[in-house]
Amino acid sequence: MTTFHETRPNAATKPVRWAADAVLAMREGARVRLDYSAQSVWRVDRIIEGIRHEGAPYAAVENVLRAFGAYTGEVIARQTGAEWWSGSGEHWLRTPDGRMWDPIDEARRCFLGDGSLRLLCRDVVTAAGMTGAAAAAKTP
């Protein structure tokens, strides 16, 4: 019997680890529970907003933002069947309809005040749901 992680593509290795690190750090350091639900991404957005308002320099939070982006990507992957892809050191998601999404970059944009992980999650899940519904409607 294979487990969920054994069937994942190799590109998922780092983002899955970064996401797990975010879950652990939030649970132990901030006592915030991240459970891979879409609702938990709202908490991540608020945490990033708080970090931004504290005036933390980007260099000091770069790895945290990467972990939060990977966590959001994992939420999306689990809800839509998206897969992690990588190239040139970058990681992004490919949804079953072939679209590419970059939750790690969205976390960076969120920190800069020009992005939202919860909206990204909503948009991807909605798009994947619409695609799935359209495909199901065409099936006899």
What keywords describe this structure?
5 helices, disordered N terminus, mainly alpha, disordered C terminus, 64% helix, 3-stranded antiparallel sheet, 140 residues
Describe the structure.
The protein has 140 residues and is mostly helical. It contains five helices and three strands; from the N terminus they run H-H-H-E-E-E-H-H. It has helices at residues 13-30, 38-54, 58-80, 103-111, 117-138; strands at residues 83-87, 90-94, 100-101. The chain has a three-stranded antiparallel β-sheet with strand order 1-2-3, with no helix packed on it. The protein is globular and about 40 Å long. Mean pLDDT is 87; it is low at 1-7 and 132-140.
